[in-house]
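Rotation project, supervised by the postdoc (A.L.). Task for the rotation student: set up a whole-complex structure prediction and record inputs and outputs verbatim in this book. Inputs entered:
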Amino acid sequence: MRKKLLVLLAILAAFALVAAACGSDDDTAESDAGAGVNIGLVYDIGGRGDQSFNDSAAAGLDEAVADLGIEPSEASADETGSNREELLNLQAEGNELVFGVGFLFAEPMTNAATANPDINFAIIDDSSVDLPNVASLVFAEHEGSFLVGAAAALKSESGKVGFIGGVNIELIQRFEAGFIAGAKAVDPDIEIVSQYLTEPPDFGGFNDPAAGKVVAQSMFEGGSDVVYHAAGGSGAGLFTAAKEYSEANDTKVWAIGVDSDQYLTAGEDVQEYILTSMLKRVNVAVRNTIEAHVNGDFAAGSQVFDLSVDGVGYSTSGGAVDDIADQLDDFKQQIIDGEITVPETP
Amino acid sequence: MTAPTTEPQAEPMDNSDSVASRFALTGTRRLIALVVLGMVLLALTERFARIPTTDLTSSGTWSIALGWSIPILMAGLGGMFSERSGVVNIGLEGLLILGTWFGAYGTVVTGSPWLGILFAIVAGGVGGLVMAVATVSFGVDHIIVGTAILVMAPGISRYLSGLLFPDHGGSITQSPNLGGVSTFSVPFLAGGAIFGWESPDILGSIERSNAFLASEAAGILRGFVFQMSWFTLIGILVIPGSAWVLWRTRFGLRLRSVGESPDAADSLGIDVYRYKYYGVIISGLLAGYGGGFLAIQLSGLYKEGQTQGKGFIGLATMIFGNWRPGGTASGALLFGFTETLRLRDPAAPHALLLFVAIVLGLFALRAGLQRRVVPAAGLGVAGLLIFWYYMAVDTVPNQLPQITPFIAVIVVLLFATRRLRMPAADGQIWIKD
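Outputs recorded:
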């Protein structure tokens, strides 16, 4: 009896801690239009504070709170992502519009949106959910990657650049395809090495800076002098590798960030090695969708955020690409005008 | 790999009439022979690979593989100490996580990776103490306690991250960047400096010479003496250290006796509880070190989820290594090497297929010489199948190298179960009457 009680206590204590760690915090703000409108947002693994994808969504939510005065409520998927559907259903209880941040929400959202037909849902990075109350917000990552690929080729002195993908899935292949196309547009003879950290269903490649560092090291040792990553949290390893390789060999190699302006978040010690970042403005998508909902214009179906609406782009913090900005903006205009079609598969 | 004198040699191949037994080597000589054979095979494989690669024997690969093995090794040795005292520790992954977080936090607040890793060790030790209290004093099932640690550690880390890292430039899921400790190269062997004077890089020049066998051997050896971090060196020293403690000291004998037969140990006046506490706490200290190493040295920051199951892999290497330090270390290096190889050069795993085919062929030959027909045929067919696959494809799917070490462990467990022997009272709950 005593033993059973202890076991129970141990389990309860463990769960209490986890629950405490995953608890959502509600902050309230005072503004105008959307007052009283409840918006729910479920982050994927990592949650607010990943300095990347989730944070970008969080920024959009914060903008909406500040500009429209909506009432937000947030939640994060657990370590294994097994509770995505439960969290969506939970958020659907008290909110009018619920976001799922990431393509891994596709199936959970299909179920949750079917179960809650009166609630509006929006999913980011996926266009496979076809329901009358679901908006699919997707980005033209290949177009943004084209621009940083061009930047990499313009800055490379060795004629060799690298790409690190987190997990070998269609979404990340789009980054690779755009990067390759962009680099080749500048220099048809350029050599591009690509490497993915893990294969699905192992999504650990988005969270393994040590693996990112090993791959980046071997790329730099192999002669690449600009490396672009689309590997989420593993990208931190690329920045460290760029710094260590540059210092050890008395040279300068570049890293290119992804999703948000990583020059601002990756840490001061590696800043000088970050050439630019491919921006994926999830915040714009989140904020615009909330505004549309508040104004009663919520539209279900797929919406593509591409270069023409500044849904993707490249960052200029640090000024490392200032000298080639004209060429990059030229490419950008050509893509918007349809003179260049960027491939979506490598 | 074989343990010193205290335990008898349990070699099933010692049928005195078999041909092989005449060539059988024991102890250190056998280990050296195996290492040399492995190096020669790797060199041959690389030379004659259909898809060219240089990463199988390059010092760069081996040097990184060594570092990559340390967290796995520490988890494995940690598991070994705990299980040698009779407590199954499936919470190693959780202890690693505690090590990563506290190692990072310690480095952030003190500015010194050395103090940071001390934080990691202490945190792991405290985690071990909690496990010991639950399993030893309260007699809770080891699996339940291990699971509780596994569930708790990420929760604690996340909570503390949100509380403490944002002020230092990190966030709820990651720490700011950490600088690791410096690295060194051994003078003369790998061109390390002595008081500012750069010694010749003997192994390096042999590696670059492209001389058959010598170049490859030098590459592998140089990986162990070139740009090694001080943390890596300490990790390596734990291998002989733990062998010495467990098999050459009174403390080690008592610790093992508690894991083999607590009743007998108790009747001889050994404080069973105390030694089980020691075992589990040492387990925590080692796993904490492994976690700290992973965050501070290998990754350069704490990142939620970065342990990637290394604690469980450590547990597998412990079983692979028959609850012994040398075997655990070779298991850890196997995992470290295949993982590094896969990440560094996607072409290399293809060449590795040839290596595996040859190794299986040799095993088949040995089994044949011992007149063990079924294993010989099985190994031979497996070797031929892999060789056929090697000839048939030009690239292996990226998933394959990712699971290679796991397959290796399963194969070892299949073929060596007769030789594997866990501590007799491992996993049992012992309550003093």
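Student's summary: The two ends of chain B are 38 Å apart (CA to CA).
Supervisor addendum: Confidence is low (pLDDT under 50) at residues 1-22 of chain B.
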